[in-house]
Design goal:
This protein has helices spanning 18-34, 48-54, 60-65, 84-93, 137-154, 170-184, 193-201, 212-218, 230-245, 290-293, 308-317, 339-352, 367-376, 387-392, 414-422, and strands at residues 38-39, 45-47, 67-70, 76-79, 102-111, 123-132, 161-166, 250-252, 264-271, 280-286, 301-307, 330-333, 358-360, 381-384, 394-399, 407-410. It has 423 residues and is of the alpha+beta class. It has an eight-stranded mixed beta sheet with strand order 1-5-6-11-10-9-7-8. Helix 1 packs antiparallel against helix 5 (137-154) and helix 5 runs parallel beside helix 9 (230-245). The structure holds adenosine-5'-triphosphate (ATP) and magnesium ion.
Amino acid sequence: MSKIQAVRGMNDILPSEIHKWHYFENIVKNSLQQYGYQEIRLPIVEKSELFHRGIGSGTDIVEKETYDFTDRNDEALTLRPEGTAGCVRAMIEHGLLRNQIQKVWYNGPMFRYERPQKGRYRQFYQLGVEVYGADSISQDAELLSLIWQLWQALGLNRHVTLELNNLGTTENRIQYVNALVDYLTPLKEQLDQDSQRRLTKNPLRILDSKNEHTQKLLNNAPNLNDFIDKDIQAEFIHLVHYLKNLGIPIKVTSRLVRGIDYYSHTVFEWITDKLGAQGTICAGGRYNTLVSDLNGPQTPAVGFAMGIERIILLLETLNLFPPSPDVTDIYVISDEQSIFGAMLIVEQLRKAHSDLIIELNTTFGSFKSQFKKADKSNATLALIIAEDEIKSNNCTIKFLRKEQNQVSIPLSELHTSIIALLN
Ligand code: ATP
Ligand code: MG
């Protein structure tokens, strides 16, 4: 049988890389906790209809990117392409939305059948945050401040821009879409292929077209802002002022619409110019109708998702990762006769010093080869507990990172002396 390889676009995260993920996850987790958000863990597989109805059949994700399959019982299932629909499903199912505010976050793999390239994969991780039950623009502001605080904690604040738009209410948007379709229909033949298709399926997305000629035609199209209620426009201006006061670099762009059908009011993307075409590292907005669309109680909602691989790529590009903290402190060397005695001593040492990383070599070999392994582990100390040591109730400590003669200390003093020896 030939060697089996990973599925295209689905990556392994190797032990040598994992500290980067832990670094990001720890910072995010602390911030979210501090802001009063709670973690929710959701299934990776959901019924297909959740996505096909929830995020809209005309969206790119549902049209061409979902992994759909039937299980052995012929049930139509989908690997989640995003987290929001599943989160809403869970909130409704567990009755968590009646007269209360819910602030939750999740982190996990999402699946989309896309053309793999740098920053774009078929399995990728998203950190998502959702707030249910808070309708005011101040909630949008708090969420954006939270993200800004995260960029600051990660050192990314000088490398990102917030692109922001106001889509108005769902009714405003529907009226605008009608006007847009009326304007574009006579020009249909001049639009790019994708936009022609979208004219019937998802017209708002045409604003997002990368085609220059289409963009030119849009210059004379009706303006979304003219369709938005005055009070909502005023609120949006408040939001922009608040964010500018925080020092966030903002670009208000009337062409920003987002790919998923359910958005209204505030929508946003955080962009970096350091990652080429895959420069959006976080995206979200308000979705006040999705909960009721999925047969839940009418509940306002706002949320966002970050692409973790892209953030990690960005942190790597900017050299912002601290060195891995997971370095072995003590490497324990023994021999076949003494290994169980040594293991017992090491277990006690680990209990007494839970913050130390203590590795025990269980494969023996000559002392010379064991010292080589100790050196390769980057440990500060090698601790030898072999036949002689067990007999004499002493252990031997060798300094691997400095010129100092090895020392022998009574086993009974190991717990108390070890910290001084490590420094
Ligand atoms: P894009 O325009 O790059 O395809 P999107 O609008 O499809 O993004 P969202 O559905 O808003 O993306 O997902 C939120 C974030 O998840 C994106 O901003 C991005 O950082 C990340 N993301 C989306 N798709 C992928 C992917 N295939 N691989 C890696 N990260 C992704
Ligand atoms: Mg996409």
